[in-house]
Amino acid sequence: MAFDSDIIAAFYKSLATKVSKARTLLGRPLTLAEKILYAHVDVFPEKPFQRGVDYVLFNPDRVAMQDATAQMALLQFMQAGKKRVAVPSTVHCDHLIQAEEGADEDLSTALDVNKEVYNFLKSVSNKYGVGFWKPGAGIIHQVVLENYAFPGGLMIGTDSHTVNAGGLGMIAIGVGGADAVDVMAGLPWELKFPKLIGVVLKGELSGWTASKDVILKVAGILTVKGGTGHILEYIGPGADSLSATGKGTICNMGAEIGATTSLFGYDDAISRYLGATNRADIADLAEAVKNDLRIDPEILDNPYDYYDQVIEIDLSTLEPYINGPFSPDKAWTISEFGKAAKEHEFPLELEVGLIGSCTNSSYEDLARAASIARQAKEKALIAQSEFTITPGSEQVRYTVERDSILADFESMGGVVLANACGPCIGQWKRNREGGEEKNSILTSFNRNFAKRNDGNPNTFAFVASPEIVTAMVLGGRLDFNPLTDSLTSKEGDLVQLDPPVGEELPDSGFDVKDLGYEAPAQDSDGIVIDVDPDSDRLQVLTPFSSFDEATYQGCRLLIKAKGKCTTDHISMAGPWLKYRGHLDNISNNLLIGAVNYFTEQTNSVCNQLTGAYEAVPTVARFYKKEGISTIVVGDENYGEGSSREHAAMEPRHLGVCCVLVRSFARIHETNLKKQGVLGLTFANPADYDLILEDDVIDILDLDQLSPGKDVMMRLSHQDGSEDLITCRHTYNQQQIDWFNAGSALNYIKENS
Predict the structure, then answer these.
(1) Which of 191, 346, 457, 679 lies 20 to 30 Å from 145 when distance is taken between CA atoms?
(2) CATH architecture of 321-495
(3) Contact (CB, 8 A) for 700 and 683
(4) CB contact at 8 A, 75 and 542
(5) 3-state helix, strand, coil in the chain (%, to 5)
(6) Domain extents for the chain?
């Protein structure tokens, strides 16, 4: 029996009527995304929504939060004046477990080091009716896929890889904690109605090619910003040929191209997975309305008439890919990668291969990779690189241990890590002897920005499927092609690897002793949430100040960021994750990874009042103490990457009143709006060059801020000259109300 079966059954009962109503409104066949979105609108419209234009209020079915983001989300919810969450919500303790020694040792350390945070999250969950998944239960997105995702549903999660649930036909969208607070407080959730990209898949995967290679190729086509403001919808016979977890892998990494979410239609593979994960009742309900859980069939005849962009991929001819370094969209086919590695002088020795994570830790993934590991034993091959395995959930871990898959990995020297995020998010205590010299690692993760995994800017991180990673560990070099090259056995024989094989689902079914779930208390009136005022991990929030026009006069430039500035650059993870519940402490990492345009250095900006170059947070705190607001200037796709709202809360806390960029990543722009930071873009992107290090900046007439009206900014240069630049914004009236109140949370409290 599934979680929330009654809620899901009620949704399916009303789905046909809602879809029919939407089809009549649009007067044409519907894509799956359109069916799901119109089925979840708060107020059904009188005319069709304009893609990429209209802001729409939706009613999500569920909220999911990982432990790092849940701290701040729940600290905000505590200020909202609500007794209980209004929709099913969960917390998942996966991000704070540092990978170092192995599963048992690392989990034991995490339980000790993070005791205060875990107790806080558990008590708040009990207080407000939130389901709690304890440390070791698994990675949030895999747990959601196994337990909560359902075809046709709509959920939000405080992590960009929430989109994993698209593998089961659910629209799942990564958001900041303030968005989660809205929904948990019973308010509708706002989203600009997305544009749609149709990805037509034909043929079938075979040999070495895996589902991961589909999204690696798509990332190469669309780049890290090409999916921004779009839902990717995978359609065609090739889509139906993929396993449900394979579909999840593709959707999951869609976060790396900026996509709002990615989505597959309901099919037999999804039905099989639901049945295998103890949700046959949901599969039966979905089967009864399956035509409403897929695109209307006419769309496949000419997808160009229904999507804003179309990509066509033949799975039968698709090669394995390796993407990187330093950006997940640098796509190389396996046949060209070795040559490219030499030409670009990537470090050819592969030091570590890492498989698993929220996207590639399914039974199928691990079974296929294990088939390579078994060949190592059979063909007398020795691993040339370190090798780690991260199961996605306790259910998967228990099952693959039962089926000897973990033993296969261990036989080639693999180290099994905890069911947690670990190396993927910078929670990897690598203990590398070589310091910070150049080195290469290969993962089946998603994101590979500089310093992402181990904090070393010279670690060249590449992304591939788990089976390719496992094979490359046996080769030990980036210029090894497992499809064509031979390896030397311990006996001195030349041998070749056979293509991987593995079952979609376990023949004996999934098994687990303890899922790791704890239901919230039914009676929570007596539960008191205490936060130690002297804690360095948790801090009760104080409201941000409301709009004051004087704040935007006489501002100083904090930093003009050059080039890529992701949420990792704005608010690093790794060792900073432990402060995610303490806004003042974590603000000490504000923009320390951003490159200063004027110096080409990180974490060094000029304090214009003293003339000294100091750390970004130090200068920000100085200006704040002096009562001077600051402005951050950025380049294209500013805020790319994760949903982490600290990247918006930290600048607000340290006195940044405005972020002006050439373009924003979706989630980050929304997070800035939620926290009361003015988010603007250059009307003329070349005006980025006009902003000088020592400018005095005024933002004009903000008391007249209104939808669609440009904002003027005056730059007063030290030579006495001035420039007046035009800035664009995407604020609607509700978002302007948030801005005037000082934050969305302030607005909720004032109007509840």
Answers:
(1) 191
(2) 2-Layer Sandwich (3.30)
(3) no
(4) no
(5) 35, 20, 45
(6) 5-194+265-294, 321-495, 549-751
Contact yes or no for 143/126 (Cβ under 8 A): no
Q: Do domains 5-194+265-294 and 321-495 have the same CATH topology?
A: yes
Is-catalytic flag, 556?
A: no
159 tagged catalytic: yes
- The letter for the amino acid at 356 is G
Catalytic residue among 4, 61, 67, 94: 94
Name the pTM for this structure: 0.92
Catalytic pick among 279, 582, 644, 666: 644
Q: Which member of 67, 106, 159, 292 is catalytic?
A: 159
Confidence tier at 226 by pLDDT (50, 70, 90): very high
Q: Which one of 3.40.50.1100, 3.40.190.10, 3.20.19.10, 1.25.40.20 gives the CATH number of domain 549-751?
A: 3.20.19.10
Question: If pLDDT is split at 50, 70 and 90, which confidence band does 524 have?
Answer: confident
Which token pair is 437? 């010299």
pLDDT digits (tens, 9 = 90+) for 162-221: 999 999 999 999 999 999 999 999 999 999 999 999 999 999 999 999 999 999 999 999
Which residue in 62, 92, 95, 646 is the catalytic one?
95
In the residue annotation, 95 being an active-site residue is answered as yes
User: Which residue has better confidence, 435 or 628?
Assistant: 628
Catalytic one of 361, 444, 587, 642: 642
CATH architecture of the domain with range 5-194+265-294: 2-Layer Sandwich (3.30)
Average pLDDT over residues 683-691: 98
Which residues lie closer than 8 Å to 432 by C-beta, 6 or more apart? 351, 439, 454, 456
For the segment 96-121, what is each residue's pLDDT rounded down to a tens digit?
999 999 999 999 999 999 999 999 99
pLDDT in tens, 113-142: 999 999 999 999 999 999 999 999 999 999
Active site residue 94: yes
